[in-house]
């Protein structure tokens, strides 16, 4: 049994499907904690993990994700949560004009194994769309078109998104680690 600390039910659902496919039981832990504001997603994730290790018994993991838009010099990046709540996808579309639309999603999983923190990361390259498309997924999914695809992430099913996503790449590395740990 592994505990996933997150406030986001969509994240939990995506990760749960991957864990189940690997026969790993996963438990959803929702608890409040202050997230630091820092430049790096890895640093934010590590800090949250340290704080939660004082509150949660045993092994657990959490993850932090950011959307980094090239023509905006990586914005919103570590501010992705705040930006999604304030200007949202429509606000992002308004900020982008004709200076390119390349973007990257980055997920960092932080795993507290009882002794220390181990991190696993995953990235997905793509482009910001011109309009919001699709109603699956969450957050920035309606405006993100993965490289090599025509559909936005919000036009994909969870298995389709999990086949390519930033989160699934990080979580797969984590699953591989858990399998080694339990050998
Ligand atoms: P936690 O409790 O797990 O931190 P959160 O929703 O606050 O959940 P993040 O801070 O990691 O998650 O996410 C930053 C923002 O990016 C937030 O607005 C999310 O909705 C969005 N986001 C994260 N993963 C995404 C994904 O796979 N597709 C689209 N948007 C995503
Ligand atoms: Na977070």
From TrEMBL:
GO CC terms, sorted: cytoplasm
Coiled-coil regions, chain positions: none
InterPro entries with a match to the protein in the record: ITPase-like_fam, RdgB/HAM1
SUPFAM superfamilies: ITPase-like
Domain of life from the UniProt record: Archaea
Entry's EC annotation: 3.6.1.66
GO molecular function, one term: ITP diphosphatase activity
Pfam family name, one: Ham1p_like
Family, similarity comment: Belongs to the HAM1 NTPase family.
Organism: Oxyplasma meridianum
Keywords: Hydrolase
Gene3D superfamilies reported in the protein's UniProt record: 3.90.950.10
Enzyme class: hydrolase
A single BP term in Gene Ontology: nucleoside triphosphate catabolic process
Protein name: XTP/dITP diphosphatase
Record flagged with keyword Transcription: no
């Amino acid at each position: 049994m592994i505990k996933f600390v997150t406030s986001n039910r969509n994240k939990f659902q995506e990760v749960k499907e991957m864990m189940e496919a690997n026969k790993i039981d996963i438990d959803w832990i929702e608890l409040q904690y202050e997230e630091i504001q820092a430049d790096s997603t890895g640093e934010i994730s590590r800090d949250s993990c340290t704080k939660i290790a004082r509150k949660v018994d045993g092994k657990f993991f959490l993850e932090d994700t950011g959307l980094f838009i090239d023509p905006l010099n990586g914005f919103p990046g570590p501010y992705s949560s705040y930006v999604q709540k304030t200007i949202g996808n429509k606000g992002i579309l308004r900020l982008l004009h004709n200076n390119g639309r390349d973007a990257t999603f980055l997920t960092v999983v932080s795993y507290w194994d009882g002794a220390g923190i181990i991190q696993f990361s995953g990235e997905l390259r793509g482009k910001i769309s011109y309009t919001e498309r699709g109603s699956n997924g969450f957050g920035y999914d309606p405006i993100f078109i993965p490289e090599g695809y025509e559909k936005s992430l919000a036009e994909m099913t969870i298995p389709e998104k999990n086949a390519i996503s930033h989160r699934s790449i990080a979580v797969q590395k984590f699953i591989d680690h858990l399998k080694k740990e339990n050998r």
